[in-house]
Design a protein that fits this description.
Order of helices and strands: HHHHEEEEEEEHEEEH
CATH architecture of the largest domain: Orthogonal Bundle
Strand content: 15-25%
Number of helices: 6
Distance between the termini: 131 Å
CATH class of the largest domain: Mainly Alpha
CATH topology of the largest domain: Helix Hairpins
Largest sheet: 5 strands, antiparallel
Strand order of the largest sheet: 4-3-2-1-5
Number of domains: 3
Protein backbone atom coordinates (compact mmCIF):
# COMPACT_ATOMS: atom_id res chain seq x y z
CA UNK A 1 0.00 0.00 0.00
CA UNK A 2 2.83 2.37 0.86
CA UNK A 3 4.35 1.86 -2.60
CA UNK A 4 1.03 2.73 -4.27
CA UNK A 5 0.75 5.91 -2.21
CA UNK A 6 4.31 6.78 -3.18
CA UNK A 7 3.50 6.32 -6.90
CA UNK A 8 0.34 8.43 -6.57
CA UNK A 9 2.27 11.15 -4.79
CA UNK A 10 4.92 11.15 -7.51
CA UNK A 11 2.26 11.34 -10.26
CA UNK A 12 0.50 14.14 -8.41
CA UNK A 13 3.76 16.03 -7.98
CA UNK A 14 4.59 15.55 -11.67
CA UNK A 15 1.16 16.85 -12.76
CA UNK A 16 1.45 19.84 -10.47
CA UNK A 17 4.93 20.55 -11.80
CA UNK A 18 3.72 20.31 -15.43
CA UNK A 19 0.75 22.52 -14.65
CA UNK A 20 3.01 25.12 -13.08
CA UNK A 21 5.49 24.99 -15.96
CA UNK A 22 3.13 24.73 -18.95
CA UNK A 23 -0.25 25.81 -17.59
CA UNK A 24 0.25 29.54 -18.11
CA UNK A 25 1.75 28.94 -21.55
CA UNK A 26 -1.18 26.73 -22.53
CA UNK A 27 -3.67 29.36 -21.38
CA UNK A 28 -1.83 32.05 -23.32
CA UNK A 29 -1.73 29.80 -26.42
CA UNK A 30 -5.49 29.23 -26.24
CA UNK A 31 -6.05 32.97 -25.83
CA UNK A 32 -3.87 33.59 -28.90
CA UNK A 33 -5.98 31.15 -30.94
CA UNK A 34 -9.23 32.75 -29.77
CA UNK A 35 -7.93 36.21 -30.66
CA UNK A 36 -6.79 34.89 -34.05
CA UNK A 37 -10.25 33.44 -34.72
CA UNK A 38 -12.00 36.74 -34.03
CA UNK A 39 -9.38 38.76 -35.91
CA UNK A 40 -9.81 36.47 -38.93
CA UNK A 41 -13.59 36.89 -38.85
CA UNK A 42 -13.29 40.66 -38.59
CA UNK A 43 -10.78 40.92 -41.43
CA UNK A 44 -12.98 38.58 -43.49
CA UNK A 45 -16.02 40.86 -43.08
CA UNK A 46 -14.00 43.96 -43.93
CA UNK A 47 -12.46 42.29 -46.99
CA UNK A 48 -15.82 40.98 -48.22
CA UNK A 49 -17.31 44.48 -47.98
CA UNK A 50 -14.44 45.92 -50.00
CA UNK A 51 -14.74 43.19 -52.64
CA UNK A 52 -18.49 43.81 -52.96
CA UNK A 53 -17.81 47.47 -53.68
CA UNK A 54 -15.37 46.37 -56.40
CA UNK A 55 -18.15 44.20 -57.94
CA UNK A 56 -16.12 40.99 -57.58
CA UNK A 57 -18.09 37.81 -58.32
CA UNK A 58 -19.48 35.96 -55.30
CA UNK A 59 -17.38 32.75 -55.76
CA UNK A 60 -14.17 34.79 -55.99
CA UNK A 61 -15.17 36.83 -52.91
CA UNK A 62 -15.85 33.71 -50.90
CA UNK A 63 -12.55 32.12 -51.92
CA UNK A 64 -10.48 35.20 -51.07
CA UNK A 65 -12.23 35.69 -47.72
CA UNK A 66 -11.69 32.03 -46.77
CA UNK A 67 -8.03 32.15 -47.74
CA UNK A 68 -7.55 35.33 -45.69
CA UNK A 69 -9.19 33.78 -42.63
CA UNK A 70 -7.07 30.64 -42.95
CA UNK A 71 -3.92 32.73 -43.34
CA UNK A 72 -4.68 34.80 -40.23
CA UNK A 73 -5.57 31.71 -38.20
CA UNK A 74 -2.38 30.00 -39.39
CA UNK A 75 -0.25 32.95 -38.28
CA UNK A 76 -1.84 32.96 -34.83
CA UNK A 77 -1.43 29.17 -34.62
CA UNK A 78 2.32 29.58 -35.27
CA UNK A 79 2.45 32.21 -32.52
CA UNK A 80 0.64 29.84 -30.13
CA UNK A 81 3.02 26.97 -30.89
CA UNK A 82 6.03 29.18 -30.44
CA UNK A 83 4.65 30.26 -27.06
CA UNK A 84 4.46 26.57 -26.06
CA UNK A 85 8.05 26.07 -27.14
CA UNK A 86 7.26 23.71 -30.03
CA UNK A 87 10.02 23.28 -32.62
CA UNK A 88 8.41 24.33 -35.90
CA UNK A 89 10.93 22.96 -38.43
CA UNK A 90 10.46 19.26 -37.52
CA UNK A 91 6.70 19.86 -37.37
CA UNK A 92 6.65 21.44 -40.84
CA UNK A 93 8.72 18.57 -42.24
CA UNK A 94 6.33 16.03 -40.74
CA UNK A 95 3.32 17.88 -42.12
CA UNK A 96 4.96 17.91 -45.56
CA UNK A 97 5.38 14.13 -45.55
CA UNK A 98 1.83 13.62 -44.30
CA UNK A 99 0.53 16.06 -46.90
CA UNK A 100 2.14 14.08 -49.72
CA UNK A 101 0.40 10.93 -48.54
CA UNK A 102 -2.95 12.66 -48.23
CA UNK A 103 -2.53 14.16 -51.71
CA UNK A 104 -2.04 10.70 -53.24
CA UNK A 105 -5.10 9.37 -51.43
CA UNK A 106 -7.31 12.30 -52.45
CA UNK A 107 -6.41 12.86 -56.10
CA UNK A 108 -10.06 13.18 -57.15
CA UNK A 109 -10.85 15.75 -54.47
CA UNK A 110 -7.73 17.76 -55.27
CA UNK A 111 -8.57 17.57 -58.98
CA UNK A 112 -11.97 19.10 -58.24
CA UNK A 113 -10.29 21.77 -56.12
CA UNK A 114 -7.81 22.77 -58.83
CA UNK A 115 -10.57 22.74 -61.45
CA UNK A 116 -12.75 24.88 -59.17
CA UNK A 117 -9.99 27.46 -58.81
CA UNK A 118 -9.57 27.46 -62.60
CA UNK A 119 -13.30 28.08 -63.12
CA UNK A 120 -13.45 30.81 -60.48
CA UNK A 121 -10.53 32.79 -61.86
CA UNK A 122 -10.98 32.23 -65.62
CA UNK A 123 -14.79 32.67 -65.37
CA UNK A 124 -15.96 30.74 -68.46
CA UNK A 125 -19.47 31.15 -67.05
CA UNK A 126 -21.18 33.02 -64.22
CA UNK A 127 -24.10 32.45 -61.91
CA UNK A 128 -27.39 32.95 -63.76
CA UNK A 129 -26.03 32.04 -67.21
CA UNK A 130 -27.38 29.07 -69.16
CA UNK A 131 -24.74 26.53 -70.18
CA UNK A 132 -24.54 23.11 -71.80
CA UNK A 133 -21.63 20.76 -71.00
CA UNK A 134 -20.88 17.02 -70.65
CA UNK A 135 -24.38 16.15 -71.85
CA UNK A 136 -26.11 18.36 -69.27
CA UNK A 137 -27.58 21.84 -69.49
CA UNK A 138 -29.20 24.38 -67.19
CA UNK A 139 -28.83 27.74 -65.48
CA UNK A 140 -25.75 28.07 -63.26
CA UNK A 141 -27.04 28.18 -59.68
CA UNK A 142 -23.84 27.71 -57.67
CA UNK A 143 -20.08 27.68 -58.31
CA UNK A 144 -17.95 26.30 -55.46
CA UNK A 145 -14.43 24.94 -55.13
CA UNK A 146 -15.51 21.34 -55.70
CA UNK A 147 -18.71 21.40 -57.76
CA UNK A 148 -20.96 23.42 -60.04
CA UNK A 149 -24.74 23.20 -59.60
CA UNK A 150 -27.11 23.73 -62.54
CA UNK A 151 -30.82 24.43 -62.29
CA UNK A 152 -32.46 22.22 -64.94
CA UNK A 153 -35.56 23.33 -66.90
CA UNK A 154 -37.54 20.44 -65.29
CA UNK A 155 -36.83 22.05 -61.87
CA UNK A 156 -34.27 19.42 -60.90
CA UNK A 157 -30.68 20.24 -59.92
CA UNK A 158 -27.63 18.89 -61.73
CA UNK A 159 -24.43 18.65 -59.64
CA UNK A 160 -21.28 18.41 -61.79
CA UNK A 161 -17.81 17.82 -60.27
CA UNK A 162 -15.54 20.64 -61.41
CA UNK A 163 -12.94 18.28 -62.87
CA UNK A 164 -15.61 17.13 -65.36
CA UNK A 165 -16.00 20.71 -66.62
CA UNK A 166 -12.43 21.94 -67.14
CA UNK A 167 -11.10 20.76 -70.50
CA UNK A 168 -14.54 20.00 -71.95
CA UNK A 169 -16.32 21.88 -74.75
CA UNK A 170 -18.64 24.38 -73.07
CA UNK A 171 -21.64 26.05 -74.71
CA UNK A 172 -22.46 29.21 -72.77
CA UNK A 173 -25.81 30.69 -73.84
CA UNK A 174 -25.57 33.53 -71.35
CA UNK A 175 -28.94 34.81 -70.10
CA UNK A 176 -30.86 34.69 -73.41
CA UNK A 177 -31.42 31.92 -75.98
CA UNK A 178 -32.38 31.91 -79.63
CA UNK A 179 -35.33 29.75 -80.59
CA UNK A 180 -34.69 27.56 -83.63
CA UNK A 181 -38.07 26.88 -85.25
CA UNK A 182 -39.03 25.83 -88.76
CA UNK A 183 -42.40 26.29 -90.47
CA UNK A 184 -43.33 24.70 -93.78
CA UNK A 185 -45.72 26.26 -96.31
CA UNK A 186 -46.98 25.03 -99.68
CA UNK A 187 -45.14 26.06 -102.84
CA UNK A 188 -48.09 28.10 -104.11
CA UNK A 189 -48.17 30.22 -100.92
CA UNK A 190 -47.56 33.97 -101.07
CA UNK A 191 -44.25 34.02 -99.19
CA UNK A 192 -44.32 37.73 -98.44
CA UNK A 193 -47.72 37.34 -96.80
CA UNK A 194 -46.59 34.31 -94.78
CA UNK A 195 -43.46 36.12 -93.58
CA UNK A 196 -45.53 39.18 -92.61
CA UNK A 197 -47.89 37.00 -90.55
CA UNK A 198 -44.98 35.40 -88.73
CA UNK A 199 -43.50 38.83 -87.93
CA UNK A 200 -46.85 39.96 -86.55
CA UNK A 201 -47.09 36.85 -84.37
CA UNK A 202 -43.60 37.43 -82.97
CA UNK A 203 -44.35 41.09 -82.28
CA UNK A 204 -47.48 40.14 -80.31
CA UNK A 205 -45.69 37.70 -77.98
CA UNK A 206 -44.54 39.48 -74.78
CA UNK A 207 -42.04 36.77 -73.88
CA UNK A 208 -39.79 37.50 -76.86
CA UNK A 209 -37.03 40.10 -76.98
CA UNK A 210 -37.03 42.91 -79.51
CA UNK A 211 -33.25 43.19 -79.35
CA UNK A 212 -31.54 41.16 -80.76
CA UNK A 213 -33.81 41.14 -83.77
CA UNK A 214 -35.48 37.89 -84.77
CA UNK A 215 -34.26 36.07 -87.88
CA UNK A 216 -37.05 35.10 -90.32
CA UNK A 217 -36.07 33.77 -93.74
CA UNK A 218 -36.51 30.91 -96.20
CA UNK A 219 -34.36 28.06 -94.94
CA UNK A 220 -34.75 25.49 -97.69
CA UNK A 221 -36.90 24.22 -100.54
CA UNK A 222 -38.01 20.82 -99.32
CA UNK A 223 -39.77 18.01 -101.16
CA UNK A 224 -43.23 18.92 -99.86
CA UNK A 225 -42.97 22.68 -99.38
CA UNK A 226 -40.95 25.78 -98.55
CA UNK A 227 -39.32 25.72 -95.08
CA UNK A 228 -39.19 29.07 -93.27
CA UNK A 229 -36.70 29.53 -90.42
CA UNK A 230 -38.10 31.39 -87.38
CA UNK A 231 -35.41 32.37 -84.85
CA UNK A 232 -36.47 34.94 -82.26
CA UNK A 233 -34.68 35.54 -78.94
CA UNK A 234 -36.09 34.98 -75.45
CA UNK A 235 -34.82 35.04 -71.86
CA UNK A 236 -33.62 31.62 -70.69
CA UNK A 237 -36.53 31.29 -68.27
CA UNK A 238 -39.06 31.87 -71.09
CA UNK A 239 -37.42 29.70 -73.75
CA UNK A 240 -39.59 26.57 -73.58
CA UNK A 241 -42.86 28.41 -72.89
CA UNK A 242 -42.26 30.82 -75.78
CA UNK A 243 -41.54 27.92 -78.16
CA UNK A 244 -44.87 26.26 -77.39
CA UNK A 245 -46.82 29.50 -77.66
CA UNK A 246 -45.30 30.38 -81.04
CA UNK A 247 -45.97 26.95 -82.52
CA UNK A 248 -49.63 27.18 -81.49
CA UNK A 249 -50.02 30.80 -82.64
CA UNK A 250 -48.48 30.16 -86.06
CA UNK A 251 -50.63 27.09 -86.65
CA UNK A 252 -53.85 28.86 -85.67
CA UNK A 253 -53.04 32.01 -87.67
CA UNK A 254 -52.09 30.08 -90.80
CA UNK A 255 -55.30 28.05 -90.61
CA UNK A 256 -57.38 31.22 -90.17
CA UNK A 257 -55.71 32.91 -93.17
CA UNK A 258 -55.84 29.87 -95.44
CA UNK A 259 -52.09 29.25 -95.60
CA UNK A 260 -51.45 25.56 -96.13
CA UNK A 261 -48.82 23.80 -94.02
CA UNK A 262 -47.91 20.80 -96.17
CA UNK A 263 -47.24 17.31 -94.88
CA UNK A 264 -44.99 14.69 -96.47
CA UNK A 265 -46.63 12.99 -99.43
CA UNK A 266 -45.61 10.10 -101.63
CA UNK A 267 -47.15 9.13 -104.98
CA UNK A 268 -47.13 5.40 -105.56
CA UNK A 269 -47.70 3.95 -109.05
CA UNK A 270 -48.26 0.29 -109.69
CA UNK A 271 -46.95 -0.86 -113.06
CA UNK A 272 -48.06 -4.14 -114.45
CA UNK A 273 -49.03 -5.99 -117.62
CA UNK A 274 -52.42 -5.02 -119.08
CA UNK A 275 -55.08 -7.74 -119.05
Amino acid sequence: MNEQFVVLDQAKSTLIDLAIRFGPKLVVALMILVVGFFVGRWLGRVTEGMLKKLAIDAPVRQLLVRLLRLLVLGLFLIMALQNLGVELLPLIAGLGVAGAGVALAMQGVLGNLVAGLTIIFTRPFRIGEYIAIVGEEGSVEEISLFKTVLSHPDRSRVVIPNRKIVGEILHNYGEIRQLDMAVGVAYDTDLNRALALIRAILAANPRLLRDPEALIQVRSLADSGVVIAVKPWAPVAEFHTATGELNQAILERFRADGIVIPFPQREVRLLGRPD
